[in-house]
Design goal:
This is EAL domain-containing protein. It comes from Lusitaniella coriacea LEGE 07157. This protein has 292 residues and is of the alpha/beta class. Helices cover 48% and strands 18% of the residues. Helix 7 links the parallel strand 5 and strand 6. Helix 6 runs parallel beside helix 7. The protein is globular, with a radius of gyration of 21 Å. The N and C termini lie far apart (78 Å). The structure holds ligand C2E and magnesium ion (3 copies). The site of one magnesium ion has 4 residues, from loops.
Length: 292
C-alpha cells in the first residue's frame, strides 16, 4: 500500500507531466490574451491570428474553384504554432467559439475583397467548423448575419465538418445542417475515411461534398489498399451524387491516378501551399491570365 501511494505520488509530481500541464495552461492563457487583442483591435499590439488560403482546383481544367481557410497563430514568444496544436486546446476551453467567428468574419471580408477585384470569377470559400461550434443553436442564424453584413450569397460558402460532427444526436444534427443548407451554404465532410461515421447513414445528411483525407492520397501510388480506398470513396461520392475533393496532392503521379478515377477536384502542394491573402490574390490573378 505504501508502495502504491508512493507510486501515485510519484505520478502526480512526475516532472515531465508537470511541464506538459504547465505548457498547456500557458498556451490556454496566451490563446485567451491573443483573442482579446484581436477582438478589441489595437494597432499598437500585433495581431497574432491570421488566415491562410489554399486553392482548391478543378483537376480537369486547373481552374480555381475555391480556397480553404486555414488559421495561423503567430505566438509572440514561440513563433508559428500549428493549428493541430492550438485548435484542440481552443475546443476544450470553448475558446473555439470566439476564434471560429473571428476566422469566419475575416474569411468573409477577404472573399468580399476578391469578389470586387474579380467580379467575373465564381469561387467559394471553405471554412473548417468544429463540432462544438456546430452544436450552438444559433449557428446558422449567425452565419446568415455575417454573410449579409458582407453582402455575400450563402452559395459562396462551404463548411468543412469532420465525421465527429455527425456522430451524436442524429435528428438534431440533421435539423441543424438543414438549416444551414436553407441559406444555400454548402457542406463538406473533411478528412473523409478517417472517422467512424456510418456509411449506411451518410445519405441521410444534407451534404454536398466528400474530401478524401490526405493520408489515403499520400499512399495511393505505393499501396494498392490505399488506391482501392480512394477508388471506393470516389465511387461512393458519385453514387450519392456528391462532389469529391482529394486533399494533399503532392505529385503528378497522384494527380494522374485521381483523374483516371474520375475525381473532379483537388488541393495540395502540387498546386499551391496555403498562402497569405496577398499571395492568394496573386495566385488568382495568374489563374485568370495564365502565361502560356
Ligand atoms: P484540414 O482541414 O484537413 O486541412 C488540411 C491540412 O493539410 C492543412 O494543414 C494544410 O496545410 C495541409 N495540406 C494541404 N495540402 C497539403 C499537401 O499537399 N501535403 C501535406 N503534407 N499537407 C497539406 P494545417 O493548416 O496545418 O491545418 C491542420 C488542421 O487544423 C486542419 O486540417 C483543420 O482540421 C485544422 N484547422 C485549420 N484551420 C482551422 C480553422 O480555421 N478552424 C478549425 N476548426 N480547424 C482548423
Ligand atoms: Mg479542412
Ligand atoms: Mg481536410
Ligand atoms: Mg486532412
Amino acid at each position: 500500500r505504501a508502495k502504491d501511494q508512493e507510486k501515485s505520488r510519484y505520478a502526480i509530481f512526475d516532472p515531465s507531466m508537470q511541464a506538459m500541464v504547465a505548457e498547456r495552461l500557458q498556451l490556454e492563457g496566451d490563446l485567451r490574451k491573443a483573442l482579446d487583442n484581436q477582438e478589441f483591435y489595437d494597432r499598437n499590439r500585433p495581431q497574432e491570428f491570421y488566415n491562410h488560403y489554399q486553392p482548391i482546383v478543378s483537376l480537369k481544367t486547373g481552374k480555381i474553384v475555391g480556397f480553404e481557410v486555414l488559421v495561423r497563430w503567430n505566438h509572440p514568444q514561440q513563433g508559428t504554432i500549428s493549428p493541430l496544436k492550438f485548435i484542440p486546446i481552443a475546443e476544450e476551453t470553448q475558446l473555439i467559439d470566439r476564434l471560429g467567428w473571428w476566422i469566419f468574419q475575416e474569411g468573409c471580408a477577404q472573399l468580399k475583397r476578391w469578389k470586387e477585384e474579380f467580379p467575373h470569377l465564381f469561387f467559394c470559400l471553405n471554412i473548417n467548423v468544429s463540432a462544438i461550434q456546430l452544436k450552438q443553436v444559433d449557428f446558422s442564424q449567425k452565419c446568415q448575419e455575417i454573410l449579409q453584413s458582407f453582402s455575400l450569397e450563402g452559395s459562396r460558402l462551404k463548411l468543412e465538418l469532420t465525421e465527429s460532427c455527425l456522430l451524436e444526436d442524429l435528428p438534431k444534427q440533421i435539423a441543424q445542417l438543414s438549416e444551414i443548407k436553407a441559406i444555400q451554404v454548402q457542406l463538406c465532410i473533411d478528412d473523409f475515411g478517417t472517422g467512424y461515421s456510418s456509411l449506411s447513414r451518410l445519405h441521410e445528411f444534407p451534404i454536398d461534398t466528400l474530401k478524401i483525407d490526405r493520408s489515403f492520397i499520400h499512399r495511393m501510388t505505393s499501396s494498392t489498399g490505399h488506391y482501392a480506398t480512394v477508388e471506393m470513396i470516389v465511387a461512393l461520392a458519385h453514387t450519392l451524387n456528391l462532389n469529391v475533393v482529394a486533399e494533399g496532392i503532392e505529385t503528378g503521379e497522384e494527380l494522374e491516378s485521381l483523374i483516371k478515377l474520375g475525381c473532379e477536384f483537388g488541393q495540395g502542394y502540387l498546386f499551391s501551399r496555403p498562402l497569405d491573402s496577398q499571395a492568394a490574390t496573386e495566385f488568382l490573378r495568374k489563374n485568370l491570365n495564365p502565361k502560356t
